[in-house]
Amino acid sequence: MNAIELLQQLVRIPSPNPPGDTRAIADFIAEQMRAIGCEVRQPAPARKQPARNTIASLGRGEPRIMLHAHIDTVPIAKAESQNWSVDPYAAALRDGALYGKGSIDDKAVLASMMLTMMEAAQQDQLNGSLILVAAAEEETGGQLGTKWLADDGHLPACDFIIVGEQTGNKVATAHKGVLRATIQTIGRSVHATNPDRGINAIVAMSKIIAALDYYHQDLSRLIHPVVGVPTCNIGVIAGGSTANAVPDTCVIRLDRRMIPGEEPEAVIAELRTVLESVDLDGATVNLGDIVYSRWYESALNTDYAKTFMDCVRAELNDDPGPIGYLPGSDAKHLMNLARGDMIIFGPGSYEVAHAADEHVRLEDYEANTTILKDFVRRTLYAD
Description:
Elements: H1 3-11, H2 23-35, E1 39-41, E2 54-59, E3 64-70, H3 78-81, E4 93-94, E5 97-99, H4 103-120, E6 129-135, H5 146-151, E7 158-164, E8 172-175, E9 177-186, H6 201-218, E10 231-239, E11 249-258, H7 264-276, E12 284-293, E13 296-297, H8 303-316, E14 323-324, E15 338-345, E16 359-361, H9 362-380
Helix pairs in contact: 1-4, 4-9, 8-9
């Protein structure tokens, strides 16, 4: 099959997460890779057997280059489904683009990587190893996908890693981490006819919100060269039960984005300091439900990175970067396996992902494929 047909096949295999059943698409990839002579493994975590991954390898020994893309997509939301102008799993072609759920996130770059493997398999010998990782569970954080693969010993350390995401075919070298937490204020409820007898948890929370807003503004003094500044956003608030009672509880949920170099423990300490600085006039406050996902950062110091930048520059006739990637990615789970540089790279924009009429422009898909093939030719093909 040609490049467009391959991408259509991938899009036509639904892989929404949740539920995260990637067996069908993982098996399709495995079948294609076995057909070209790859060594193929399909590990899945015991906690979630349907979250099947496919790892395909060509060549032997050093250096090792990894091509990584995820095979799950977000599900189609009820409201979103009404806004598609085409069948989201038909992989329709229109006006120079291929439309479909997962077409840009992440199946276009996955197809480019598979095509790169297919070309490399035609060589009599490779000067090293080329490894394709088609990973499950990225859309739900990667804990049972790439993180599990790395922690459980299914992935080798590599000299250069390309993580496929939507970067407009520019080279991204960092993304932010995220820490989420719940803050609860506890007061004392009384009848609203005489509210001063109680302790209003919502009023207490309003003071905390003001302090967190100041904290957010103060974070702008910290600037990372490609991903910008850290942030603190209050996304949810809930409190009280009726207008004629003083509320005894109020809860907010916040999202704290961390730039490379910030550590979660330090950020948690900062949040506690903010809370302790507020006079709550008798109310108490709790910080809990803390979960976090790390940032990623890589340099471009190696010869492989310089070669990759040259390949991008040659194809696009434009500045290859580096840029920052605003969403997260599985790169954060691979940092301990990157004994050289690791980049995030792929066609298109994340701004058309997770939405109705998701699509990839065919010229961007073709350029991505050309760059990946050129890089592998320059680095692994025998003279």
